[in-house]
Amino acid sequence: MARRKTATISDEAQVDMTPMLDIVFILLIFFIVTTSFVKEAGIDVNRPEATQSSSKPAANIFIAVTENGLIYMENREVDVQRVRANVERMLAESPEAQVMIQADQAAKHGIVVKVMDQVKAAGIDRISVSAEQK
């Protein structure tokens, strides 16, 4: 008489999850490293409207100019003479950086021009000015 082997709970096949977890962690690290973090200027401004504005999301350095003439970079107020040093520091961290100036529609254009001059003196020729799409 032959004995029949019956399957028990301990004999069931189990899936090893270790390789899948390794792949998930590698993908997570990949996405964290390749993500570019956007640094805002740190203040909301009332941007002017423009009918011919275009979307350029490639800016890494944001400079805000308020209606009172205050200049903000990285959530802190800076003097117009310190804009160049701050942009040079940011440019050293990210050599392909571009600048976006977010000027309030009531800001004096003389201050905006001074900020643009400081950015150009820091070595960035391509400067964008933010506007609302009309």
Automatic annotation (TrEMBL):
<protein>
    <submittedName>
        <fullName>Outer membrane transport energization protein ExbD</fullName>
    </submittedName>
</protein>
<keyword id="KW-0813">Transport</keyword>
<keyword id="KW-1003">Cell membrane</keyword>
<dbReference type="Pfam" id="PF02472">
    <property type="entry name" value="ExbD"/>
</dbReference>
<feature type="transmembrane region" description="Helical">
    <location>
        <begin position="20"/>
        <end position="38"/>
    </location>
</feature>
<dbReference type="GO" id="GO:0022857">
    <property type="term" value="F:transmembrane transporter activity"/>
</dbReference>
<keyword id="KW-0812">Transmembrane</keyword>
<dbReference type="GO" id="GO:0005886">
    <property type="term" value="C:plasma membrane"/>
</dbReference>
<dbReference type="GO" id="GO:0015031">
    <property type="term" value="P:protein transport"/>
</dbReference>
<keyword id="KW-1133">Transmembrane helix</keyword>
<comment type="similarity">
    <text>Belongs to the ExbD/TolR family.</text>
</comment>
<dbReference type="InterPro" id="IPR003400">
    <property type="entry name" value="ExbD"/>
</dbReference>
<keyword id="KW-0472">Membrane</keyword>
<keyword id="KW-0653">Protein transport</keyword>
